[in-house]
Amino acid sequence: MSDSITVAELEKLGADEYMLIDMRDSSAFEYGHIDGAVNIPPEELSSAELPADKKLVVYCRSGIISGEAADGLCERGYEACELTGGYVEWLRLKMENRQVTEAVELSLRKKFKKSIWCKFTKAINEYELVQPGDRIAVCISGGKDSMLMAKLFQELKRHDKFPFELVFLVMDPGYSPENRRVIEGNARSMSIPVHIFESDIFDSVYNIEKNPCYICARMRRGYLYSHAKALGCNKIALGHHFDDVIETILMGMLYGGQVQTMMPKLHSTNFEGMELIRPLYLVREDEIKHWRDYNGLHFIQCACKFTDTCTTCAPDSRSVSKRLEIKNLIAELKKVNPQVEKNIFRSVENVNVNTVIAYKDNEGVHRFTDNY
User: Fold this and answer.
1) Model confidence, pTM
2) Based on the domain organization, do 214 and 289 belong to the same domain?
3) Per residue in 6-29, pLDDT tens?
């Protein structure tokens, strides 16, 4: 049987005394990991050749399944142990009493002015996302995108070119205590005054077998609209970025058989007078990651409490998400054509209805033969 080691005990070891192994899937590792860790997923860990002269410290997301992996390594003759609490516990301790507000804000004004701030303000102006008198609920999930959006809105408010109000809204749909502490800690360290309300969405979708994530997302949006409206808001802001937009375009074509895009703003069909806006519409995800890493920030990839024992810790290669497939496809296409991302985006701005077989609008389907 393997032992366990706490974060504090790990930090007392010399760097050459141990090897830190992150057994989460590659996307979770890329999103954020403990400094110095190497990524070896479960399916590779069982047969990986590892250094016999070092202590092997294994961690998953919350310490749910890393103990079993450490036991397996011990059976193979290695000195192995699990990290108590996993990545989430390390992250919680790292953020404790940390204050990064000034550095984060300075980076948006200087280092990332062109790549993030100007793209944010361009979307605000080009798509008329913010108007005088607006009261906007900036919806924060706890990830890198929504946290960046919150800081950008604070910066926009600081310019004070016209009057509008902000509410930084966090919905707790049933987060684990560890996840909630991480979200609260990040908000506190960046001086984002979050308003948190609770729901039971995770419990509601627990037994749904078909598309639980889609249903969860739809329910979350409904709760956000409802709570934002109760707080006097007329808009909710979500953190979808440029990459989300072009991935949605390709997903619609390749898997949905239709040409559509993720719009920069939408009128709500169920909440009268409410609007959804996407201020990061023109911001590239790579720049968001660069901002995160430049400031030494760490966020949880998915705060769903069920990922403690599913995809984040035990990925199934047979069920790779369609969005990840599209993301990988775009990356391959970009190797041949560096402009492919811009071209995908522009394709839905340059639709010539005279050269399509049919198109749909609120009045129904129109075929080219109608007026041929």
Assistant:
1) 0.81
2) yes
3) 999 998 999 899 999 999 988 788
The answer to whether 300 and 143 have CB atoms below 8 angstroms apart is yes
Check whether residue 352 and residue 250 sit in a common domain. no
Helices (H) and strands (E) in the chain, counts: 15, 13
Q: What are phi and psi of 360, to 5 degrees?
A: -115, 145
Query: How many CB atoms sit inside 10 A of residue 56's CB?
Result: 24
Domain span holding position 28: 3-94
| Alpha-helical segments (H) within the chain | 7-11, 26-31, 42-45, 66-75, 86-95, 101-109, 118-126, 144-159, 177-189, 201-205, 212-230, 242-256, 285-294, 322-336, 340-347
Dihedral pair phi/psi, residue 264, rounded to 5°: -70, -20
pLDDT by residue (tens digit) across 80-110?
999 999 998 898 888 777 889 999 999 999 9
Q: Which region among 80-89, 168-177, 250-259, 273-282 has the lowest average model confidence (pLDDT)? A: 168-177
